[in-house]
Each structure stands twice: as C-alpha cells, then as structure tokens.
Amino acid sequence: MYRARAIVNSLTGVQGHFAGWLLVKNTAPGASCAAVRSYNVPAASEPFLNGSSSQYVEDMYNAWLADPSSVHASWDSFFRNSASGGAGYQSPPSLAPLGRNEVPATSFLPALAGVGGTGAVSEKVIDDHLAVQAIIRSYQIRGHHIAKLDPLGINSADLDDRTPQELLYSHYSFEDDDMDRVFKLPSTTFIGGKEKQLPLREILRRLELTYCRHIGVEFMFINSLEQCNWIRQRLETPGAMEISADEKRLILARLTRATGFESFLARKWSSEKRFGLEGCEILIPAMKQVIDKSTEFGVESIVMGMPHRGRLNVLANVCRKPLHQLFTQFAGLEAADDGSGDVKYHLGTYIERLNRVTNKNIRLAVVANPSHLEAVDPVVQGKTRAEQFYRGDGEGKKVMSILLHGDAAFCGQGIVFETMHLSDLPDYTTHGTVHIVVNNQIGFTTDPRHSRSSAYCTDVARVVNAPIFHVNSDDPESVMHVCNMAAEWRATFHKDVVIDIVCYRRNGHNEIDEPMFTQPLMYRKIKNTKSVLEKYSEQLVKENVVTTEEVKDVKAKYEKICEDALESARKETHIKYKDWLDSPWSGFFEGKDPLKASPTGVKEDTLVHIGKRFSSPPPNAAEFVIHKGIERILKARMEMVEARTIDWALGEAMAFGSLLKEGIHVRLSGQDVERGTFSHRHHVLHHQTVDKATYRPLCNLYPDQAPYTVCNSSLSEFGVLGFELGYSMTNPNALVIWEAQFGDFNNTAQCIIDQFISSGQAKWVRQSGLVMLLPHGLEGMGPEHSSARLERFLQMSSDDPDYFPPESDEFAVRQLHDINWIVANCTTPANLFHILRRQIALPFRKPLILMTPKSLLRHPEARSSFDEMLENTEFMRIIPDKGAASQNPQNVKKVLFCSGKVYYDLRKAREERKLDNDIVITRVEQISPFPYDLIKNECAKYPNAQLCWAQEEHKNQGSWSYVQPRFETALTGSRDVIYVGRPTAASPATGSKAQHLKELANLLDDAMAL
User: Fold this and answer.
1) Which of 537, 623, 829, 990 sees the fewest Cβ atoms within 10 Å?
2) Using one digit for the tens of pLDDT, what is the confidence trace for 594-648?
3) Dist. CA 959–CA 980, nearest whole Å
C-alpha cells in the first residue's frame, strides 16, 4: 500500500505530465465518460472525473500487482517504470495556451504502449511521439505564418519573413533517418483520414499541404474544442478540397464575368473613376459561393455592406442588377428624383431573384455607403437584425449579413471593433456575419508595415473568437473551399467568420492614379503578372476540364451582354435613384396624401390604462421584490395618473404605450436606457434577491400589443447609432430610438450623423424615422455634460434661411416633407408625447433630433395635463405665453423667444422681479424647420415690444446663428431681434459651479432688463 501511495504522489506531482491526470485537470466538471474515452484514456479512468483519483490509482496499482494484463498497456508501462525507479514522463514545452476545452498535448500517451509492443515504452519513444504531437499542434497554430498567400510572391501576409522554429522538424531532434518511422496520430488531427498512424515524412507532407500552401488559417485561439475540431476536420481530412469538373467550370464562368465587366468599363470609360476590382476578381465567385452555400442552409435574405472598391462589379455580377442601370451612371445624366444623388460607387440596391445554382429565391441588399469605408458596418448589422426580428428569425437561419472590407480599413477603423463587439450581445447579435477582406496589401499609398502594428489586418476578429481564413486570391479552388467552410461555420455556430483574400490592386487607388510613385517594385511585378482568369483558364485547359474554344466562347457571350446593355442605357434620359434603394418600403407610400398627417392625440381611457400599468408593481408583487426607491417612484406616478398629470417619464411611456397599442413596434436603445441615465425611466424592474429576474411594464400593457424592445447597449456611440439607423431603415412602421448617455457624446458618432442621417435621403433617396434623444442643458456639470451641440444639427438643416414658404393649411407638414430632418427642444411632457407619436403619424419618415432635459425630468413645473394629449390636440411648434402680459399685448415691453430648459429659469426670474405684465416668454419647441408662420404672428401680436432671442448656450453655439436670419425673413427686416445669453466661447460650458451660476445670473439680468 505504501508503494501504491508513492506512485499516486508521483502521478499527481508531475503537474499534469501524465495524460489521464491532465485530462482531469482540463475537462469541465460533469464531462461525459465518452469524452474521456475519445482521448484514448482507458475507460476505467472515469473515477478521475469524480475526484477520487488517489483511491483509483491505488486500485489500479493493486490490480496490476495481481495481474499486469488486467490493466491497460499504458498503465502497465507506467507501473513497470515507476516500480523500477525509472524517470516519469516528460512533455515538451507548451506551444500555446490551451483553450478552455482543449485537450493537452500528452492526451494520447496512455495508449502508446500499444505502438510497437505491449511491454514498457522507452523514454525515447515517448519523447518522439510527444514531439510529433507538438509538430502537429505547431502547424495548426503557426502554419499560416509560412503559407504562400501573396499571389505576387513578394510579401509575407503577416509582415514577417521568418519561419517559426516550431515548424522545423529538426527543432525536435529528428533526423533524416526518422522520416520513415511510423507514429501514432493523436485524436486532435484528421490528416490520417481513416489511418491511425503515418510515417513522419507523410505527416509533414500532409501538414504542409493543409496549413502552408495557399490557405493559412488562424483558429487555435478559439476556446472550444468542438469548434477547433470542426475546422481541423474540414481542413485536414484527405481529399477535403477536391471539387468536380462542373464546379470548376462554374468558377471559370464567374471569373470570366467578373473580369469581363471590369475590362468593358475600362474600354468604354477609360478616364472615369470606378474603383474596379482588377487584382481581386475572385471576390465575385467567392461572394456567390458564400451566398449559394448559405442558401442551401436555408438563408433567404442577405444584407451586404462594402466599400467602393468592386461595388459596381458586385452589383452587376453578385446581385445581378440590370447592367443598363449601371451603365446609365456613366452617362452624366441629371437625376429624375429629388435629392443631390451620389457617385455611382457609393450607391446601394435591393434585388429579389432566383438563385440558379440552388433553385431557391434569394433577396440581396447592398447598403449605400459613403467614402467613410467601414461606416456602413453597423448599419448593415442593424438592418439585418431588424429583418430577423420582423420575420421571427430568432436564430438567424433566414437572414444573414455579409460585410466586405479593405485591409487597411479593417485594421485601422475603430468602427470595425465597435461593430464586432455587438456580435454576441442579446439585443444586437445577427447570429454570425461573414466578413470578406479584399486584402490589396496596401492602403491608398501606405505600405502595410506603416498601417498596422499587428501581424495581420484581420487580428481584430480574434477578439470575438472568429476563425480567420487567409487565402491566396490566385488559387480559386482554395478560395471556394474557404468560402464553403465560412458559410457552413456561420450556419452551424452562428458566429462571425473572416475570409482574408490576399490579392493585389492592379491599378492605383483609382483608375487615374499613378501607383508607381509610391510602390514601384510592387507595380513592376503586377505589370508582369497574369490575371487570375488567365491562370485558371490555362490550368483547366491542361486538366482537360475545358477547351480553349470554350474559354473564348464564355468571354464573347458576356461581352455581347454588356454591349446590349449599353445600347439600352443610351436610351435613358435621367438617372432614377429609386432604382438604387437598398430599403424599399413596399406599399408604405401608396394611397397616402403626402401632406396629411394622422392625429396624435388619444383617448383618455388609453392614457389612464397605460399610466396605471406603468405605475404598478409586477403582478406577482408578493414574490417579486422591487427596490424601495422604485416603490416610491411607482407610487408617485400613480398619484400623477389619478391627478390627470404627467411628468417627462410618464409622457414618454404614454407615447410608447399608445403606439404599442396601435401595433407599432418601439425599440429604445442606448448605453443606460433601461433605467435611464438620470434614473427617471425604469422600464426594466429588477428583482432584488433573484439575479436576472426582471419585469418590463410596457411589455405587459395589452395582450395583443406590438413588441417593445428596450436594451442597454455597449459603450459605443458610432457603432450603436449606426446599428439603430440600419434598424430604422427596415420597417417604416416602427419607432426606433437611440438615446445618448449625455448628448455631448453624440460627436463620437458624428460620421453616422453627417453621412447617413443628415444626408441619407438626399444622396440615396433613403428615408428614416430614427429618433435621437440627446440630454442637453447647462447645469454646471462641466464641458462634457452640458451640450449636445445643438448648433451642429441646425447648421446641417437644409431649409433656406431666406425663404418664407407660402402659408397654407399644410404649411407645417410641407415644411417637414421638404427638410432633411427635424430638430426640437421641448419643454413639456405633452409636447414630447406628441412629437414622438408624430414620427409615426407622418405620411413619410424624417429623422428627429430631440434635445432632452436633465433637471426638467423632475422639475415640479415641467408637468402636463391629460387635456393636452387627448383627441384633437397636437404637437405645438411654439408655445405662446398665456400669462398676464399676453392679455395686454400693446403694453408688453419685451418678448423673449427661447427653447428648452432656459424657459423655466427665465420664468422664475420674471416672477421674482414682478415683470409678468411687461415681459412675454414664448417657447420655440420645433426649431427646425423654422416655424415662420407662427413666429410672424407672435411678433405681430406685440407691436411695441423689443424682440429678443434668449439661450443658455454661448453665442457661437446653440440656436442663435440658425434663428437670427430666419427671424429677419419672417419679419421681412421690419424689426430687429436682440441676442441675450452667454458670450462666445471655445468650450461648451465652464467646469466651475461658481462661474456657471455667475454666467446664469448675468444671462437673467440681461433678459429681464427693460
């Protein structure tokens, strides 16, 4: 017994060098015994999994003493060596950290005694088998470093020409004499197929073919053994890459179209920028292969985003957009639709067609994108998520996204990470995206060594455990194999995957750019490099798959198709941008008066019902423990409902609830929206003693209501705002809202605001009803918690400051119809209620930029009555003063126009100074489009008063620069409007509370001066 315990101690003291012991240390509790057996550990090892290792080894040892043949040969070998005082097993240094479920390198050792005999295994045999295991693992981990990925043969894709020493068999003390020795293959490789052991020479040959030829794969960082084995099996199994002659001919046909399209454009419009695909024509067959394979797995709709390079080719040969519509873009015609339009290689499209390979219908959308390369990424993801939501596709089996990237942008643009970081969040996941990188190995003119610090441009994808397939663009069959794997991976695991097509750019950044200025050696090589079509055609001719005549015939047929399309394009007189919509809203605009909005007021019964439900604890209140503070909030809300009064949170909830009742899906997204940054909303109640138990009042208003989604986002503005914009583009009958934690932080998403929200309709005829809630107001909280930069939104408003539209009954709706977006700063909960509902009531969709309050959320005077929300009430563009002064307009000395929170400061100062009969305060709730008609009437009402615009923001900020010329237009220059407020400043606000109060006092003194 003493000897048995000594052996147990030696076993456990080796720190996992013994296979069975290692397996226990690296197997999750509760793992099946079948899993143990799958790693060549004796079935009798099962007690290890239950923590009884010491007793188990003692029993094994006693059984061995009684009869050595009664235990597995590996145990027999171990006990023999230990009994004779032999050295314990030694394993080689680990090459990389093991994944969470990865089997250690020594997992096959207990079975080794069976290789070459049943007796004791020499230390040399064990070391050599361990070395083979290490070699195999080295190729799996680092083989991609020496893969032949560059079609030009001049660069290393990982920016490093060295060969890792772990990939040299001499590193493991093997010599030439060892090359024909046979070694048992571990369970973590599939290179043997049905064979369980191979000569070392053949092992190395198969590893080279798998990992070091034209495919370099990074996957061993994934912390799932199942997923690693899935990839290994599809890469390593002999014959896995073999394809039929028909498949080869299909690749050739698609390559011919991709190449023919670019050469046709180059001949017809040689001086035009088109950002062609020359050098990576294989992208077209690659995308089509991903789509074909995904369609086989049940996908019916694919949303795509991409930069400008190759876009026209993708539209023509992947989406099959009619060629004459593409060629019309080169004709220099005027637009037939409203808006300024955009250059041809930024436009999107939407196509429904039959996939002739799978004989299934497929919907393909390419989302329009500006020159801000990766900005479209989150928009695509939001659009995809919305499609999945409205289809009830909770697992992403029907709808998926494909994102194309350039190498320099993929590693250089932070939005790539922000978007990827959404990939596994419950309310943002699209259940896997296929990313395809067109790796030109150059930016505009920047060498990769100067454009990234990581080995590969794709390293950001490692953060989300996405497998990364690097592939040589001039090996079409390898590209297709990788595409098949990527599509199947996405369908199997519903996680992101990256295809890095290592290629080159035959021309400069655009067709009229001279690349020899900056990359002379590369472009000398490119000049003498045959196209992939030429190379592949020659290969298939040699293989007797096609004849030279067949190759020429395919080219000629496509050439004729292009010529016929050009003839049709020459008959067009205008560009129709509606042909390029990526989000058509079928039936939405039909049968509607474009200048008539539906009413926004609702019945009192509806308000009361929503108010009471929103103010009540969960139905199972006895079991669901809510926070004491929430109990007080709910009680206060119920008292307001009973008093027929609402505050800001109630007004918002009633707007949402009434839309949900009408079947309108509402989605509210942002960093802290569930509770609300200022602890005012509480749309998700949390059980105080049970983790993850929640109750959402607005999801439980009516049995047949529309779904309500309120979701806290990652700490991202650029990514999440883009996501919600994409979401809003999918369904016009939904209210999609993004709220900034503080309005100040919207500038981190400025690209989405400038390129998509402000100008999207003008450039791409694409409407969106997205709402941006931006907490705004100077309250002494410092420069980054005061201003949503209202002035920037107003500066981007498209209404003409010198144009007073004709007055009519449809004046207000026509203004909304003609402008690019709506900018408002409301002062009452009722007006918030109406403006949110108006987003759906309008017969069209416009983005709404809404400055929201902070202190007003609980201000006792910022309340509204139910009467202001009932039927026959509506949003008030301005709120006139109804106080004492308004009763004697002739005697009023000053009219203060203002917007937002400052109204309550002005009103308080007027009351304290007893100026109620002298000063009128009029609130401009909708700043843009400017309410010319109401402003004109309001000024005319007080003919003897001085007119002032008062604002809390600095003079060079806020609304002043926007409203000043519009006041002049409204008043036809007959009266001046004076500015009242802070002086100009570089910073939005002071960080000193004392200075803030001093500035506010000066503002109020100026405003009240007569």
Assistant:
1) 623
2) 999 999 999 999 999 999 999 999 998 789 999 999 999 999 999 999 999 999 9
3) 12
Q: Tell me how far apart the alpha carbons of residues 402 and 430 are, in angstroms, rounded to a whole number.
A: 11
Return the SS3 of 417.
helix
User: Comparing C-alpha atoms, which of 245, 272, 276 is closest to residue 260?
Assistant: 276
What is the distance of C-alpha 641 from the center of its chain?
A: 40
At residue 84, the pLDDT reads 56
Q: What's the Cα-to-Cα distance from 583 to each of 299, 369, 496, 664, rounded to whole Å?
A: 18, 13, 24, 19
Whether residue 10 is predicted with pLDDT greater than 80 in this model: the reply is no
* Distance separating alpha carbons of residues 614 and 685, to the nearest angstrom: 11
* 651 close to 830: Cβ distance less than 8 angstroms: yes
Q: Is the pTM of this model over 0.85?
A: yes
Check if the beta carbon of residue 717 is closer than 8 Å to that of residue 740: yes
**Four-residue CA torsion sign, 803, 807, 812, 818:** negative
Q: What's the CA gap between 136 and 172, in Å, rounded?
A: 12
User: Is residue 17 scored above 50 in pLDDT?
Assistant: no
Residue 737 β-bridge partners:
668, 771
Sequence-distant (6+) residues with CB within 8 A of 480 are: 243, 247, 251, 285, 286, 289
Report yes or no: 218 and 139 within 8 Å, Cβ to Cβ: no
Please tell me the distance from the alpha carbon of residue 225 to that of residue 805, in angstroms, as a whole number.
67
Q: Is 765 left (phi over 0), alpha (psi -120 to 50) or beta?
A: left
Whether residue 164 is preceded by a cis peptide bond, meaning omega within 30 degrees of 0, is no
pLDDT, tens digit, 9 for 90 and up, residues 884-906 = 999 999 999 999 999 999 999 99
Which three-class secondary structure string do you get for 654-714? Answer: HHHHHHHHCCCEEEEEECCCCCCCCCCCCCCEECCCCCCCEECHHHCCCCCCCCEEEEECC
CA distances from 886 to 624, 869, 939, 948 (A): 52, 24, 12, 16
pLDDT at residue 59 in the model = 67
Helices 376-391 and 718-730, interaxial angle, to 10°? 40
Which of 156-160, 697-701, 877-881, 988-992 bottoms out in mean pLDDT, i.e. has the lowest? Answer: 156-160
**Complete domains list, the chain, with CATH:** 256-579 (3.40.50.970), 604-868 (3.40.50.12470), 878-1008 (3.40.50.11610)
Give the pLDDT mean for 195-210.
95
Task: Return d(Cα 742, Cα 671) in angstroms, integer.
Answer: 10
Residues 544-574: tens digit of each pLDDT: 999 999 999 999 999 999 999 999 988 887 7
User: 218, 312, 306: which is closest to 262 by C-alpha?
Assistant: 312
User: Please, which pLDDT band fits residue 82 given cuts at 50, 70 and 90?
Assistant: low
Alpha-carbon dihedral 951, 957, 961, 964, rounded to 10 degrees: 10
- What is the identity of the amino acid at 763? K
- Residue 126: per-residue pLDDT: 86
Those residues whose C-beta lies under 8 Å from the C-beta of residue 46, and which sit 6 or more positions away, are 33, 36
Strand partners, 894: 919, 946
Q: How far apart are CA 423 and CA 464, in angstroms?
A: 8
Cα 103 from Cα 87, distance rounded (Å): 24
Q: Are 476 and 282 in contact, with CB atoms under 8 Å apart?
A: yes
Per-residue burial over 476-508, b if 16 or more Cβ lie within 10 Å, else e, is bbbbbbbbbbbbbbbbebbbbbbbbbbbbbbbb
Is residue 172 within 8 Å of residue 133, measured between CB atoms?
no
Report residue 449 as tokens. Answer: 């060594």
Determine which helix (DSSP H) or strand (DSSP E) holds 937, and give its type and residue range: helix 932-941
796 class by beta-carbon count within 10 Å (0-12 exposed, 13-18 middle, 19+ buried) = middle
